[in-house]
Structure formats: structure tokens, C-alpha cells
Write a structure and sequence with these properties.
14 helices; binds D-mannose; 356 residues
């Protein structure tokens, strides 16, 4: 595995490449052209400029998160083929720049959903949190308004104001889309892009739905082992793989994370590792990475990744906001750096114990 950190680009991130570079065990960043809208073409010169900036700081690009998929592709509406053409060209441009891993999601309207961005924990740190009760009380159009004030002035991925201004129309687009249609549209999309992925050896890593169940009545299809295996079989190409996101799949306490990992040898291309603390099955908050602070056994998760020979990029996912840092919720430097150190320790210990 390779330890990485997500970086949104110098225009958007409070964390600098220099700080990431000095986090000794992090050699790569997961980044993106953050101002591109879903469906927009990623020009090669812009990718090249981003790559040069990262490499000038002594790091490299380990993968992209995300090249976002447009709602036309997700709903299969009339602009889908145009948007898929742009997606293919964007992948080609990434391949030409020697970038071989792309994370994306197929969640309708909202990307990940949280109801609080700064829940205070007993130690005074703040974290992202979710309660189903809060979602059930709110109309979807008000969702963005309700969390906007806690974004610390940043633009959060999946919650771009440009998209959120059209939430009503977005919901309208999905009114006839059920799980089966959404799944078919995903398969159509993957079949269309597999040739360019084969040509440039690009691993596509779908991000699970977060939380791993339907919100606001919208269909969700990447929620558990059965759905993931179904997708792997429907497009049986090694470039069609998963982002193993413990914090997303783990929202459903019925999901056995080590078992999901062990069922996917060769198909996990990227790992997001973080912990959650549950107060009830539908009320949880993000915790520090270590096992004892939350619900998941991080040793078992890392051990399963090690045992299947996972060798892709890993990133410590959302961190708590600690030490008075002001940053994009979940994406401050301090707690993610602590998380990366802890995860590197687990990977090193498990790897060495295995060789003895
Ligand atoms: C949130 C992230 C997601 C993720 C996308 C992948 O912090 O994990 O926004 O990047 O779902 O496309």
C-alpha cells in the first residue's frame, strides 16, 4: 500500500503540499481539478499543471478523487452520451499524464450526507455526524442551507453551491429512477469507459454510498457486499473496482468490513480508512482513527487488506477537528496526519509479523 493524503489544490485547501510532504510517511496525494463540474472535460494541460505543482513539492499524484459523474449519466437522460464522451477524453488525458486510479461515485443528487459538521465530542474536538431522525425532519432543498454555516468558508466535495442551487430540478430528474435503472445506467457507463481504462491501465474505484442506505427516498446501489459483488460481476474487468471506504460501508452495522475486503481480491483499488462511533444504528459520529475510539476493529481491516495483497493507495479519511485548526470539516491536517501515522504502524506491524 501507499499512504496518501487528499489535497484539494492550492486554491481550495487550507493544507499545503509542504505540510503534506513533511508528514514523512505520506508520499502521494489524491487530488482533482476541484473547479470542474460533473460532465466537464478535464484538459490535459490543466492536469499537467496540477501534476507539476505536486511534483515540484516533492510528492506525486497517486490518484484522482473524483472525476465526478454527471446526473445525466446517472439518470440515463439525453445528454448522457455527450457526457460519457467527455469522461472518456478526461480519462485519456489522465492516462497520458501517467495517472492510473480514479475514484468516483454513483450517488443520486447528494454525495455523502451528514446532518452535523461540527458535533462536539467529550474531548472538545468536533466531528461530522449523522442522525436519521434529523434527515427525516428536513426537506431535501433545505439540506444544504442547514449545514452551510458549518463549512468553515470552504467548498465541500459533493456540496458545491452551483449544484445545490438546483436541488429541486435534480430531484425531478431522479423521479423515475429506481435501484435497477440506476444500476443499469452504471453498467452502461462502465462498459463505455472500460476500453480507455484498458488502454491506459486506469483503475476505476467506485465509492460506496454514504450512508449505506437510501436517503430522501433516492435509490442507493453501492451499499453492501451483495451489491458490490453484483457490480463486479456485471462488468467483469479488473479495471472496474472499489474504493473500500470503511466509514461509508461501515454506516450499516450489518456490513462486515473484513469479510467484504476478503471477498474482493484484485478489485479494491483504493482505501479510505476511518472509524465511526455509534450511539444507535442510525446515530453515529466520526471518531479518531484508532480502534479504541470507535466501533471498527482497525487491526482486522488492515489485516484483511494485507492478506488479499492490496497494494493501492490508502488515505486516512475524515479526521476530527483538533488543536483549534480551522479547515474544511473532515479535512484538516492534524488529525489526518495522526490517522496516517497510526495506519502506517498497523500496516508495518502486520507486514513484518507475516514475514517472520
Ligand atoms: C467525502 C468523500 C466523498 C468522496 C466521493 C467520491 O469526504 O469521501 O465526497 O470523495 O463520494 O466520488
Amino acid at each position: 500500500m501507499e499512504m496518501t493524503m487528499r489535497w484539494y489544490g492550492s486554491k481550495f485547501d487550507t493544507v499545503t503540499l509542504k505540510q503534506i510532504r513533511q508528514t514523512a510517511y505520506v508520499k502521494g496525494v489524491i487530488t482533482m481539478l476541484y473547479d470542474k463540474q460533473p460532465g466537464e472535460l478535464w484538459p490535459q494541460d490543466e492536469i499537467h499543471a496540477l501534476k507539476t505543482e505536486v511534483e515540484d513539492a516533492g510528492l506525486h499524484i497517486s490518484g484522482i478523487e473524483s472525476v465526478n459523474v454527471s446526473d445525466a449519466i446517472k439518470t440515463g437522460s439525453k445528454d448522457r452520451d455527450k457526457d460519457i464522451d467527455n469522461y472518456i477524453k478526461s480519462l485519456e488525458n489522465l492516462g497520458k499524464e501517467d495517472i492510473h486510479m480514479v475514484c468516483y461515485n454513483f450517488m443520486p443528487v447528494f454525495d455523502w450526507t451528514r446532518t452535523e459538521l461540527a458535533r462536539r465530542r467529550p474531548d472538545g474536538s468536533t466531528v461530522l455526524a449523522y442522525t436519521q431522525e434529523a434527515v427525516d425532519k428536513i426537506v431535501p432543498e433545505k439540506m444544504f442551507e442547514s449545514i452551510k454555516g458549518e463549512m468553515n468558508g470552504t467548498v465541500m466535495p459533493g456540496w458545491e453551491p452551483e449544484r445545490m442551487a438546483h436541488v429541486k430540478e435534480l430531484f425531478e430528474m431522479y423521479k423515475d429512477i429506481d435501484e435497477n435503472k440506476l444500476f443499469d445506467n452504471l453498467v452502461y457507463f462502465l462498459n463505455a469507459i472500460m476500453p480507455v481504462c484498458d488502454k491506459y491501465d486506469i483503475n476505476m474505484a467506485i465509492h460506496p454510498d454514504d450512508p449505506a442506505w437510501s436517503v430522501f427516498g433516492l435509490p442507493r446501489i453501492i451499499t453492501d457486499k451483495a451489491h458490490i459483488l453484483h457490480l463486479m460481476q456485471a462488468v467483469d474487468n479488473k479495471h472496474n473496482g472499489l474504493t473500500l471506504c470503511t466509514g461509508s460501508l461501515g454506516t450499516n452495522l450489518g456490513n462486515n468490513l473484513p469479510d467484504i475486503i476478503r471477498s474482493l481480491p484484485g478489485r479494491i483499488h483504493f482505501a479510505h480508512i476511518r472509524n465511526l462511533k455509534f450511539h444507535s444504528p442510525t446515530n453515529f459520529e466520526e471518531a479518531a482513527h484508532l480502534s479504541s475510539d470507535g466501533t471498527f476493529d482497525m487491526y482486522e481491516i488492515v489485516k484483511a487488506l494485507h492478506d488479499i495483497g492490496f497494494d493501492g493507495p490508502v488515505r486516512p479519511d475524515h479526521g476530527r477537528m483538533i488543536w483549534d485548526e480551522v479547515a474544511m470539516p473532515g479535512y484538516g491536517l492534524y488529525d489526518r496526519a495522526l490517522g496516517a501515522a497510526y495506519l502506517c504502524g498497523l500496516f508495518e506491524a502486520i507486514g513484518k509479523a507475516d514475514r517472520k
